[in-house]
Write a structure and sequence with these properties.
379 residues, alpha/beta, Aspartate Aminotransferase, domain 1, Aspartate Aminotransferase, domain 2, 2 domains, seven-stranded mixed beta sheet, three-stranded antiparallel beta sheet, 12 strands, binds pyridoxal-5'-phosphate
Length: 379
């Protein structure tokens, strides 16, 4: 295993819930760390002691630090990063910011998170094409190729499917979009913190994610990255003073967008989450990101192996290059099973027809074994 016992022990001590519960649900909500709590205490302390002047001396700087750190985790530049309240808000801003012209087709898939499709479902002028999965696990890039053409405005889909853990080839998808003159927009909420992300290397135009899940930073914030060479083409139709070239000019006769991705920001970001996110990322980074990714892989392989041995049916890719730390186990009563496990202090989740298990770097092999044993007891 990538971490030795000592390293694992030290890491686990930073996440108090692990001492109380067998926590295997990081794809819903990453665990709270003492590092994140310390950041939050810092925020409260500045608020208590300084009031609004903390904005200038501390909090504006924290926003910059978070934009830069988050950019680094996604293979983007700090100038390509924006902070928004949720993935839905980030998607809505960019969906409306593109010059539409004659194009009115948006291509997504049935495995994406629904909020992605909703952006266009509510726009009668848009033709939404929803690709169907051949096996309930993945979509073949060829399926995109077949429908993306000169009518396509966006190829909008996930990096990692929340519903199956499948990792899409975003380089191929970005190329398909580019060659047809369409925008590539990737919902990567389930990716950073469990697999490496390089949106620039992949040639993606827009990438959304956030600290809530594998980055252990809590709710109330999302990240949006837009490639520098495409920002100037985009004119958001929802905006704010954070998007203005001179935020503190207070001159509403002359609005000018910023040149960087902050032109997509929608007002004051949630400062508690900004602090929590920095702490959560620091806790994970303490072991090194490559080791985080390697350990998620090891635990997932172990979990799948145990499920196979036990004769459980999985809806998760068998291709090691395409699977991630989200494992879907078929179950006749997933909700009941999750409640049963919860009473045993084992925290997993359910989606229609399946129990969803998501081990993170801080979990142990023993915890993974125990969830499989407990699940067998519900069948
Ligand atoms: C892939 C994916 N996208 C989006 C969301 C939710 O986005 P929002 O921040 O709008 O609640 C989730 C889960 O909560 C998700 O798993």
């Amino acid at each position: 295993m990538t971490l030795n016992d000592d390293e694992l022990h030290r890491l686990r001590a930073r996440f108090p819930i692990l001492g109380r519960r067998n926590y295997l649900n990081s794809c819903s909500l990453g665990a709270l760390s003492v590092d994140a709590e310390a950041e939050l205490d810092d925020f409260k302390d500045h608020w208590h002691r300084m009031g609004a002047s903390a904005w200038y001396e501390h909090w504006m700087g924290k926003l910059d630090t978070l934009r830069a750190e988050a950019a680094g985790l996604h293979g983007a530049q700090p100038s390509e990063a924006a902070l928004l309240p949720s993935t839905s808000a980030a998607l809505a801003v960019v969906a409306d910011a593109v010059p539409q012209g004659e194009r009115n087709r948006v291509v997504c898939t049935e495995l994406d998170f629904p909020t992605l499709a909703y952006q266009w479902r509510v726009k009668p002028e848009i033709e939404l094409v929803v690709l169907r999965s051949p096996d309930g696990i993945r979509i073949d890039p060829k399926q995109f190729e077949e429908v993306v053409d000169e009518r396509t405005l966006f190829v909008a889909t996930s990096h990692v499917f929340f519903s199956t853990g499948y990792v899409q080839d975003i380089t191929a998808l970005a190329r398909i979009a580019r060659e047809a003159g369409a925008w590539s927009l990737i919902d990567g909420y389930q990716a950073p913190g469990q697999i490496p992300v390089d949106m620039t290397g992949a040639g993606v135009d827009m990438y959304t994610s956030g600290p809530l899940k594998w980055l252990c930073g809590g709710p109330g914030l999302s990240y949006l990255f837009v490639r520098q060479d495409r920002i100037a083409e985009l004119h958001p139709r929802f905006t704010s003073w954070f998007a203005a070239k001179d935020q503190f000019a207070f001159d509403f006769e002359h609005f000018e967008f910023r040149d960087d991705a902050r032109r997509f920001e929608l007002g004051t970001p949630s400062l508690p989450t900004v602090h929590l996110a920095l702490g959560g990322q620091r806790a994970l980074a303490s072991v090194g990101w490559d080791r985080v990714f390697a350990r998620v892989r090891e635990l997932t392989d172990h979990l799948m192996g145990r499920c196979d041995e036990a004769g459980l049916t999985l809806r998760t890719s068998r291709d090691p290059a395409r699977r991630s730390g989200i494992v879907m186990v078929a179950h006749p009563d997933p909700k009941g099973a999750v409640a049963h496990l919860d009473a045993m202090d084992i925290v997993v989740d359910h989606r229609p027809g399946h129990v969803r298990i998501s081990p993170h770097v801080y979990n142990t092999v023993d915890e993974v074994d125990r969830v499989v044993d407990a699940l067998l007891g519900t069948l």
